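Archive entry: two folds, one per protein. Generate the first.
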Amino acid sequence: MLEKFVKKLNFDAHFHYADCMNLGICVFPEDFVGISCAHCEKEWETQKDSPDFIIKSYGLHPQNAQNYNISSIDFLEKLVAEKQISFIGECGFDLFCDEYKRFEIKQEEIFTIQMEIAIKNNLPVVIHCRKANHKLFEYKTKLSQLPEVLFHSFMGPSAEAFSLLNHNINGYFSFGKQVFNGNKKVLDCIKNLPSERILCETDAPFQCLKGEKFTSPGEITKIQKRIMELLAQKKSLF
């Protein structure tokens, strides 16, 4: 699925339709297509009625791991069984702060369950991973069994991205507004990864630059423009 969107203008690989709706910022550019993630039943109720150009995903987010239970998993399995979602996620690991680290074991439990559901149903996943890239390599065998893996807002060096690909993981790496603040790891990935593995995202309404209150899906145009400029610079070196 992701392959056909790699070169499509105004493809947003990751955003949150329900949160954008709540803020009243769901204004999309022409020819927009985006993958929207929801993480609870309330968000899903908003997302399920989104326009056809929204690709729907649902997952159990690692930041909320301590709140998930059997009913949470049952709801995800229901959406999968009814073919209401095209991706599972975002899911993964977040060890950014002590609060999240306390629930690392629960994060592992929830992630493992989602991987098993995705493998069983041949569904791609959207990965959230913050300060925890080492965990991805612990799950390399399961990740390699998935049709596609989108590493949203990937924050590792290109060497780690290549290592994931070299473990037979059909991975794509999406980047957002970090391209405007000189993030060295992001620029390293864009410089070195094959262009067909690089995608643009807004993470709207989140992932703001300093001084901003939120990001809108419409900003995918300027993110795409900047990434295209960086890719053109890479090509000019050869």
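Generate the second and append.
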Amino acid sequence: MVKHHHHSHDHGHDHSHDHPHTHNHEHDHLHSHVHGDSGSEQRAELQTLATQFVQGFREAKDKTSYLRLAQIDFQRQGSDGLTMHLVDANINSNWQIGTASPAFGSRELVYMPYPGEMVMERETMTFTYVSLTQREDVDLMNILKSIVRK
């Protein structure tokens, strides 16, 4: 059984074989990076879709059927040609409590904690696929990006 993928990037699991893991971290974790307006509408749309998807998944009595209706792949091909199988869906809750950005002329960051009303929860969802030789954690945002482009 694969243990949940934590944001700390701990990838412990109980399989009786070793397999390297890869990451798809193109998604925004909404860290304190400043983003331009390019694609901000698409990001907002994807965030709304992701929020609705996670909410629906949590409420679904039959999680497998929910994933099938959402056309989430239960198998995908690994980089070595072996079939990778969906074994885990992980939802992680985070709260951004402040922002940190580079200070001018210093190696220190300028830190600004948020007042309580600005602290907001955000959730990320990751799907874990494994084969005999590989493990891949695919972020829901990457799946939604490919669906929205179609």
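Annotation attached to the second fold: The two ends are 34 Å apart (CA to CA). The helical segments are 40-59, 63-69, 140-149.
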